[in-house]
Amino acid sequence: MTEPCLRIALGSTFCRIGDVDYNLAQIADFAEQARRAEAHVLLTPELSVTGYGSYPEVVALAECAGEGPVYAGLAAIARKTGVTVAAGFVERLGHGPGISHYVVFPGGEFVVQRKFRVTPYESPLVSALAGHPHGEPVPEKLDFAALHFPTFEIEGVRSAIVICADSGIAGLQDYFDTLGVRTVFAPVGAGGNVKERVRTSDLCTAEGRERYQRALEKAWFPGAGGVFECIVHRRAVAAVNQTGWDGRSYAHVGDGSVISPRGEMPVVLSGVPNLDFQRPAFRVGIIPLAHFEA
């Protein structure tokens, strides 16, 4: 008899800046792979549909939640494959364009999570906190009364989205305990400057090899702290980053992982700092539902 499981697909996209059709096509391909693997949900990176960054082409794609071409494309993908799709976009907020993430279900229903700790590098994209000036760092300590983390169910497991730097909000894990959140989906988009990456030819020099080693140490493992946090809070975490150089400033390494409430890792996407070998990547992590039991 098959043990009931939560199957989480990770899709590390190689995005084109401002090219919604191209990026949606990658997500559609990943969703089809997820369908064949019998995954329940596909997680793609921060701003996976628009491309990551504060570039004018990205900012111009801001849409009202549930009304624009990004939502329509994701809804069509979810409906066709039967897989719930989580993907990033720029949302038109009342005080400016913000970084948000859709969770779109096969029936067209959706949830939107907004990013609070938008970084200065992401300006003119703004924090979901309307009173916070864009272009300035958002502190770790925030008033949870001003924050909104909508929860949703995947295979009966209460879940939430945390976008990139928001994972550093002080007290967030304890707050999720009060909400009964058992799985956190963590889309990531930020990549290092392309000057921090290497190509194969750089490995012929001592300086290039040292740079490569530093990058590998950051990209190969999700970190013991995150694993222990899952164990302490009996919570799963799924995270995935974009991959590839965007042709401008950022070169994402494509790392990701699924960590179970027991601290096991059914999937680890090792980051690839070598620009010559970066490709879109897809993996499925399987967590028995029994692992969520206290």
SSE order and pairing:
Elements: E1 5-12, H1 20-36, E2 41-43, H2 56-59, H3 69-81, E3 84-93, E4 96-104, E5 110-114, E6 152-154, E7 157-161, H4 172-179, E8 183-187, E9 192-193, H5 206-219, H6 224-233, E10 236-240, E11 243-245, E12 250-253, E13 256-259, E14 267-269, E15 281-288
Parallel strand pairs: 1-2, 2-3, 7-8, 8-10
Antiparallel strand pairs: 1-15, 3-4, 4-5, 6-7, 9-12, 10-13, 11-12, 13-14
Helix pairs in contact: 1-3
Q: Could you name the ranges where pLDDT drops below 50 across 5 or more consecutive residues?
A: none
Instruction: Write out the CATH superfamily name.
Output: Carbon-nitrogen hydrolase
Q: What is the helix fraction of residues, given as a range?
A: 10-25%
Q: Judging from the principal axes of the Cα atoms, what is the shape?
A: globular
Mean pLDDT: 93
Overall number of strands = 15
Strand content: 25-35%
The ordered H/E elements are EHEHHEEEEEHEEHHEEEEEE
**CATH architecture grouping:** 4-Layer Sandwich
Widest sheet: strand order? Answer: 5-4-3-2-1-15
Largest sheet: 6 strands, mixed
Query: N- to C-terminal separation?
Result: 23 Å
Indicate the radius of gyration in whole angstroms: 18 Å
CATH topology-level name = Nitrilase/N-carbamoyl-D-aminoacid amidohydrolase
Helices, by number, come to 6
> Structural class, judged by helices and strands?
alpha/beta
How many structural domains in the coordinates?
Answer: 1
CATH class: Alpha Beta
